[in-house]
Amino acid sequence: MGPTATGKTDLAIELCKRLPCDIISVDSALVYKGMDIGTAKPDAETLADFPHRLIDIRDPSEPYSAAEFRADALSEMAQISAAGRIPLLVGGTMLYFKAIRDGLAQLPESDPFIRQEISLLADNKGWDEVHRQLAQVDPVSAQRIHPNDPQRLQRALEIYRISGQTLTELQAKQVRENVLPYDLATLAIIPDNRTTLHQRIEFRFRQMLEQGFIDEVQELFERPELNLNLPSIRAVGYRQVWQYLEGTFNRVQMIEKGIVATRQMAKRQLTWLRNNWRFEQLSMEDPEKLREALKICSTITI
Q: Which of the listed residues 137, 154, 177 is the one where a domain comes to its end?
């Protein structure tokens, strides 16, 4: 695990040279065909030597959910384990990692009438009142959700009013029903300082442009069924180049916005990791991180 541009794929390949591992990609952009340069997808030679499962499995016009990823990843993990090998999950899509570890709660679909009731309550008495009512039925969620977070407040109270069960109860049920039948050795590559990571992000984005990133997006841009509302085109980098092709930005603005968006994504990834996961930390700059990773992986039993 780790933020973008920290060298996760390179380390994974080195582990595969030394351990009986098969790689499963945990990346919401690598699933799409024809999106190679902007996703830093491994080249054909690398993929021939070290196959990555769950890449190039969707057309950019098709959605791909965290629930679909979990089902696909568990299937691949079972196949790898049955062959006496170790599934090595590699990537930076933290929602996918969470889906693997915790499962996904089966929450009721939204009810527009109940949503309207809650919105009217907020309009008349404020979101503090919505938060107070949530605290009466689901104090755990109310403690976790800030009174100034209307979207999550509304959803949590809506779930209770629809189902008669709290969000906390449904999530606890989810954990009981989705116990992961694997021992996890979790490694995260973390930069020692943001400056070095930011430099790597900028270098890689400019390198992608030199490799033909704009031409890659141009091919997608010319497909009439693709647009900025699709998850594939909203991917960091792709969105900015797409807007450049639309004429929203000039080239200089596109490069700046693409680099900034990538830095912001890396920050979100780091924050999520530190708040949601226990992991063995590997320094991005440490030349001995492969040795450290092998030491951690030696605890795994097949």
A: 177
Domain range enclosing 236: 8-104+180-297
Query: What sign has the CA pseudo-torsion 138, 143, 147, 148?
Result: negative
CATH at residue 121: 1.10.20.140
Question: Residues 69, 142: one domain?
Answer: no
The pTM of the full predicted model, rounded to 2 decimals, is: 0.81
Inside any domain, residue 261: yes
- Asked whether 35 and 216 are in contact (CB, 8 A), the reply is yes
Neighbours of 57 (CB within 10 A): 16
Same domain, 19 and 66: yes
Per-residue H/E/C for 54-92: CCCCECCCCCCCHHHHHHHHHHHHHHHHHCCCEEEEEEC
* Mean pLDDT within 104-111: 82
Evaluate whether residue 266 is within a structural domain.
Answer: yes
CA separation for the pair 31, 25 (Å, rounded): 8
Mean pLDDT of the chain: 94
Higher pLDDT, 33 or 169: 33
Is 3 part of a structural domain of the chain? no
The string of pLDDT tens digits covering residues 269-284 is: 999 999 889 999 999 9
For 31-51, how does the pLDDT look when each residue is reduced to its tens digit (9 = 90+)?
Answer: 999 999 999 999 999 999 999
Residues belonging to the chain = 302
Position 108 scores a pLDDT of 86
Q: How many domains, the chain?
A: 2
Q: Give residue-wise pLDDT tens across range 80-94.
A: 999 999 999 999 999
Does any domain span residue 16? Answer: yes
